[in-house]
Amino acid sequence: MSPSKRFETYILPVTDKMYRYAYSLLKDGAQAQDAVQECLVKIWSSRAKLHEIKNPEAWAMRITRNQCYDWSKANRFQLISDKEHNTPGNESSDLQTLMADQQLWLTRILALLSPKQHEIYHLREVEELSYQDIAEVMGLSLSEVKVNLHRARTKIKAELEKIEAYGVAN
């Protein structure tokens, strides 16, 4: 298979995952798109090496992660404040208001996780990567991934139970 065909077969199908991952790290759509484009350029320039890569998807996600961290450092990235990021729109129905409220609580709960736990949780639950792929992307052992994911899930569950019981978190 030619390097260009490998790129089309293994990398192009995961560009949406790369974007979602970049967005979860950068919290800005335009910056996430730029970061993914930079990643695709890097991968394209290395396409001749694609036949040596055991797991192209994990490799692409790792490049995305590194690119986002480099981007953040170079641009002295500042996170969007909770107020700007979590303000729901003017929904008219009760259901939409409840959904916006749940999204707000979930965003706040996820913010309580350590950056490592948040990233592992995102890769597993949103991007649906395997434990092994997450370990490869983040450069961690398989047991570290499992422990951090368990701790993240436990914290999320405890915070959601607090909200259900008392209507408050933290």
Summed up, what is this model?
GO terms for molecular function: DNA binding; sigma factor activity. With 170 residues, the protein is mostly helical.
Folded structure, characterized:
With 170 residues, this protein is an all-alpha fold. The chain has 2 domains: 3-75, Rna Polymerase Sigma Factor, Chain: A, CATH 1.10.1740; 88-166, Arc Repressor Mutant, subunit A (Orthogonal Bundle), CATH 1.10.10. 75% of the residues lie in helices and 0% in strands. It is built from 9 helices and no strands. The chain has helices at residues 3-11, 15-26, 29-45, 56-75, 82-86, 94-112, 115-126, 131-138, 142-166. α3 crosses α4 (56-75), α4 crosses α8 and α8 packs across α9. The protein is globular, with a radius of gyration of 18 Å. The termini are far apart. One of its GO terms (molecular function) is DNA binding. Residues 17-76 form the RNA polymerase sigma-70 region domain. This is RNA polymerase sigma-70 factor (ECF subfamily). Keywords: DNA-binding, Sigma factor, Transcription, Transcription regulation. InterPro entries: RNA_pol_sigma-70-like (IPR039425), RNA_pol_sigma-70_dom (IPR014284), RNA_pol_sigma70_r2 (IPR007627), RNA_pol_sigma70_r4_t2 (IPR013249), RNA_pol_sigma_r2 (IPR013325), RNA_pol_sigma_r3/r4-like (IPR013324), WH-like_DNA-bd_sf (IPR036388).
